[in-house]
Amino acid sequence: MIIAQNITKKFGKLYALNNVSLQCSKGECIALIGPNASGKTTFIKCILGMVSPDAGSILFNGSLISKSWLYRTQIGYMPQIGRYPENMTIGQVFDMIEDIRSNQKTTPDKELLNAFGLDKMMHKRMRTLSGGTRQKVSAALSFLFDAEVLILDEPTAGLDPLSSEILKGKIIKEKEKGKLILITSHVLSELDDLVTEIIYMQEGKVKFHKPLKILREQTGEEKLSRAIARIIQTGNDE
Amino acid sequence: MMNKIIKYIIVDIVRNKIVLIYTFLSLVISLSVFNLESNTAKGLLSLLNIILIIVPLISIIFSTIYVYNSSEFIELLVSQPLKRKNIWLSLFTGLSSSLSFAFLVGTGLPIILYQPTSTGFMMVLMGVLLTIIFTGIAMLAAVSTRDKARGIGLAILLWLYFSLIFDALVLFILFQFSDYPLEKPMILLSFLNPIDLGRIEILLKMDISALMGYTGAVFKDFFGTGTGIVVTTIVLFLWIFLPVWVSVKKFGSKDL
Question: Pick from A18, B54, B72, B139: most CB atoms within 10 A?
């Protein structure tokens, strides 16, 4: 569904992405992991067209995304740090996004919105919200349009345990509908029961891209966090 | 789709209140100028300076700051299925239409009430064009640098350049080459500054070009004629189009 070919992006002298090639297909739930500044968010922003790569191309459903914009109707995006117009209320933000995307036929999926209790604070201004509540708004927005592809950048960072369980439940539900889900996270223990594939990035390069099952077999570890630790260790030993 | 975004931007600008205060203050100033001067033509001359200095200043500063403060709004929209070009042009349309409306109500209305002559209409037209031109220049300044302080500084410098430094440079050239006939090159030079173009067109309508001597006569021969006015209008529209077009290109490939 998403094919990235030789993506390179430089910020100044630093390579944020260095010749990254990846393939993500429908029905997969992919964890994009790696240390800080390994290029995960830049890669996601390239897919969304928010950052334009210096070299390489990205195909979405077989067509190039550069200069194109309609493909974004099929993406629900939850940013790492959700930034919203400060003087708008939660209700206004939702109304605006619904209004902008109103040509899409689906009725908005407000399950997450209600589960987070956001429907009771629609009148609150964005500037008064705590980091966690903003995160809930971002999450609810990304699931609003029943998009084929969900891109979640650090979805559970800043959420309380209860809310993050609600979000995980929703992710699993959407995954079962056969959607492509791309998650970046540092909390590996959370990903265990979610993901089917792992992409490990370091210093702007893809170190490996494997199904979770194979990774578990190779390392003999059941826990994802241990499996990754094992791989990094052996990688360093070589 | 663009209409929806423009609607949100205009609602936000109205809620912001600064443009409303600008409208109200310019209304007070215009009305008092016309009521204090015994001669409305004199009132018009006082307003001329306000139009040529305040209108570009307010347009460029407010628009630059507004674009920087909308960074969250822009970021939110860019991840939605919208064309970047449309987002940027909506921002420009929202800003320039609300500032033009503020000018029309605050300054245009009193002028037309007290001085419904061709001079008055020319002043209103130039005021609206300058508002749109400087909003466009502000968009270009804001997209050129990420740093807010630098962007606003750049906008202030650009305003200083067009309202003061450019004229100083022209005077310098005039004195340096005073032995040569410079009237025709001066016409070309004035195309490089929309404020000067506006001033020339308004002054010629006021029919005080006789005070400007031989240069004034040459100017009248060019700017006073039908072709001159058409060429000036085209150049002023280029002053709207070019900065906005460059800023659209820059925004299209900007990393957010």
Answer: B139
